[in-house]
Specification:
about 140 residues, alpha+beta, four-stranded mixed sheet, about 25% strand, rod-shaped
Length: about 140
Amino acid sequence: MGKSEQQMQFTLTGFTQNDGCRVFAYEGTGEDRVRMKFTVRADLALSRKYGIRLQELPLMCLGILERSSASGEEGSTEPSHALTFTEDAMITYADDCEATRAAAALKRTSMRRQPPKAPAAPAAEFNPYSEASPAPSKPYGQNW
């Protein structure tokens, strides 16, 4: 973990559609400023099966590249690297998302305030709109 370890910086350069898969193209730049091309293939049928939205795929594929870079797999001099967003990784991501949604829903319901109940009117209170009860009698001159 010294200065010899290089941290790659990745930039999405585009994508293509091949046989039901979306192939995301990235350009990786190391500390030595050498640029390398990378691709990550994601099966769209599997992403739909596990509820992964299309908009989430580029960032998820970037995470795969960063993890593979951190583990040292980019050490070869090969100019192009092809990775795959596996079904196991999609299952793990879908499970994490479901757990996050469940926790958020639980937090929302526990923090939701119950509306205050309206106080009941006392039984003996005068209601001026009720015809059944007579108007209270006050001494002369105090009804104003």
